[in-house]
DNA sequence: TGACTAATTTGGAACGTTCCAATTAAAGTT
DNA sequence: AACTTTAATTGGAACGTTCCAAATTAGTCA
């Protein structure tokens, strides 16, 4: 009910010591006598004192806040990524500004500026589509560590943490080929992201490696969402010669593809092989369980946060680029071996 | 590259005015002469000055930070809720600490303490299971507005924003009854949450209202997740006399129920009617599209944030309890009218 | 021009911490 | 007892802002 919160000097007065001593107690210094420490700590809970980290930051210039900006929280991949970051950030005694840019560069710029004003010690950014290196230049220039995750940001001289999209896509396609598929589509995504182009590159290279001719119609663009997957299938159904399997840009698209196939009375995993990308939690429990390239979003979030904290503590920032490896998790959605895919059109 | 960030006095010196004038310019005061304002603003971008909101807070005691604690970000319902909050918080010029408690009261306590030290102006809490009124008492006592959402927190004298779970469940069951169903299950959830008990109450009341005898076996507990839905179906399949439809605790469970039915070769929406709760974005595009009680999570997040901001600005907090109305969205998963449900066991 | 009002500008205290240099108290050592 | 170490404690400046009362400058009117 007090108008003004109780401060360090209030408890100093109450304990009959100086504010410096109280400060020492607060930071657990061994310099202070056990008896005074005890008395002070007692008063601290008794008076309901709460530490003012803002004031401390003002003096020390190093805050315990990290900023996290994610392009789409409603996509479970990014939600899990955020949860992974949250985990390590919190247990390191930091607290996070977490914002959602909704793929808007403007909004992203705004929140980064606002975070900066609030004195973040570092930033983890999963950039919105269309982000330029310039958007984080001034941040990086002022010595605040930045880690870019998931999507590449060419030209930015900051650390990045990406998954091995190329290898993952290649492994997925090889698996489908091994099952006997020859007409394989790539579904979902638009050309303007590195994630898309890397995965498509893996898709293409695996096909040529197996001597299968490329068919550009089989790369079916759509929104990288569940709804996008449904749309892609609609498009595919119009083809005279249809694919027998597809690698999807991500799990969300893959689930959409399952939905779309069902409305066309094709059973996913039996009449058509599907592989997703990311390995979101639902991938395991879905029916059919989704074969997918596991990126381990939560683990990736953890690694990103660890990388950032390392740089914050190190003081100087040496730019690091990590590509996390990825593995194909075979479940039901890619189906049993297909004997004569030529006859399935 | 400067060791120390440039401050208000740096640009004051450069512009040949006092720091007070610069401060005035910063807050857009009409007191300052246009010419000096112009000069000062010029120097501000030129020297790359960034406002230190922490220092300002120290002086003013009212920050532009709100805390948001959510029990499970990986559940799309809560992710969307968070996005809704983010939207209004950001456009009001605030920035948010967003944390994920993962249903752990300990962790929740920690992050709330940490947020408090960082000087949040208010808190929105979607409490972890097992949270007690006491956990936010000291916060509320110190005059910081708190809004509790989604889950009730009995005994806490703070504002709450809940959806009308009772009415929603009742409407859903009435609809199923109208389609001819008589043996209707309730799937998912555990007894310790108000959300669960309210929805079950609606379920029960609607059944007795229609003169249908209650069967407690038909309330099938499980984790409130997709995996939980699958598990609930497994349990149901063992019944001698099976339900013909189910209301699910939430959409995640409902999707799981669809999965579970499919692995038992029952087509969701045809052989078995399913109604979800929440209306997550995927509900619309799923196949079959999910009939569900729409809670509009994003809208709810927005309302919660607006409520909080109102209280922050008002200065004094008058406790408000809002129950947002809810509506049944009929799509495909509850199926066509069932003629003779007695013969479907 | 002088007096008065309106428009601008400005020192300095204050917010709650940390840190440094300096002081005081306690404990050993001859 | 006089000194040296070691242990504990302490003022006060500093961090970057806001706010107030007061000072300065410009403008207006007789």
Report on the architecture of this protein.
2 copies of one chain form a homodimer. The model of chain A is unreliable at 338-345 (pLDDT under 50). A 6-stranded parallel sheet of chain A has the order 2-1-3-4-5-11, with helices on both faces. In chain A, strands 7-6-8-9-10-12 form a 6-stranded mixed sheet, sandwiched between helices. Chain A has helices at 8-15, 19-26, 34-46, 53-60, 76-91, 105-117, 137-141, 165-178, 194-209, 226-237, 251-263, 282-285, 297-314; strands at residues 65-70, 95-100, 122-125, 146-149, 159-163, 184-187, 219-220, 245-248, 273-278, 291-294, 321-324, 327-329. Chain A folds into 3 domains: 8-51, 434 Repressor (Amino-terminal Domain), CATH 1.10.260.40; 65-163 and 297-325, Response regulator (Rossmann fold, 3-Layer(aba) Sandwich); 165-296 and 329-344, Rossmann fold (3-Layer(aba) Sandwich). The first copy, chain A, has 345 residues and is of the alpha/beta class. At the A-B interface, helix 4, helix 5, strand 2, helix 6 and helix 10 of A face helix 4, helix 5, strand 2, helix 6 and helix 10 of B. The structure holds a DNA duplex (30 and 30 nucleotides). Chains A, B: Keywords: DNA-binding, Repressor, Transcription, Transcription regulation.
């Amino acid at each position: 009910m007090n108008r003004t919160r109780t401060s360090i000097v209030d408890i100093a007065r109450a304990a009959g010591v100086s504010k410096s001593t109280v400060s020492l107690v607060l930071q657990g210094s061994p310099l202070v006598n056990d008896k005074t420490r005890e008395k002070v700590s007692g008063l601290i809970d008794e008076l309901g004192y709460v530490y003012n980290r803002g004031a401390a930051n003002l003096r020390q210039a190093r805050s315990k806040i990290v900023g996290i900006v994610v392009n789409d929280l409603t996509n479970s991949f990014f939600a899990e990524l955020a949860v992974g970051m949250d985990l390590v950030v919190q247990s390191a005694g930091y607290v996070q500004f977490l914002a959602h840019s909704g793929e808007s560069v403007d909004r992203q710029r705004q929140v980064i500026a606002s975070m900066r004003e609030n004195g973040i010690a570092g930033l983890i950014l999963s950039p919105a589509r269309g982000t330029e290196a310039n958007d984080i230049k001034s941040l990086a220039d002022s010595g605040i560590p930045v880690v870019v995750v998931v999507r590449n940001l060419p030209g930015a001289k900051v650390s990045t943490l990406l998954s091995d999209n190329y290898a993952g896509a290649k492994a997925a396609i090889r698996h489908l080929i091994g099952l006997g598929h020859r007409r394989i589509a790539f579904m979902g995504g638009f050309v303007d992201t590195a994630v898309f182009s890397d995965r498509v590159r893996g898709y293409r290279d695996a096909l040529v490696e197996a001597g299968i001719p490329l068919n550009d119609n089989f790369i079916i663009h759509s929104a990288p969402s569940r709804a996008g997957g449904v749309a892609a299938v609609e498009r595919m159904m119009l083809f005279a010669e249809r694919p027998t399997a597809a690698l999807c840009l991500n799990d969300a698209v893959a689930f959409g593809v399952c939905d779309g196939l069902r409305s066309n009375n094709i059973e996913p995993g039996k009449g058509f092989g599907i592989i997703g990308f990311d390995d979101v939690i639902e991938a395991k429990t879905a029916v059919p369980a989704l074969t997918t390239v596991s990126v381990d979003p939560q683990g990736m979030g953890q690694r990103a946060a660890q990388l950032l904290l390392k740089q914050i503590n190190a003081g100087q920032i040496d730019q690091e680029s990590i590509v996390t490896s990825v593995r194909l998790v075979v479940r039901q959605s890619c189906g049993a071996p297909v004997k004569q895919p030529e006859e399935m059109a």
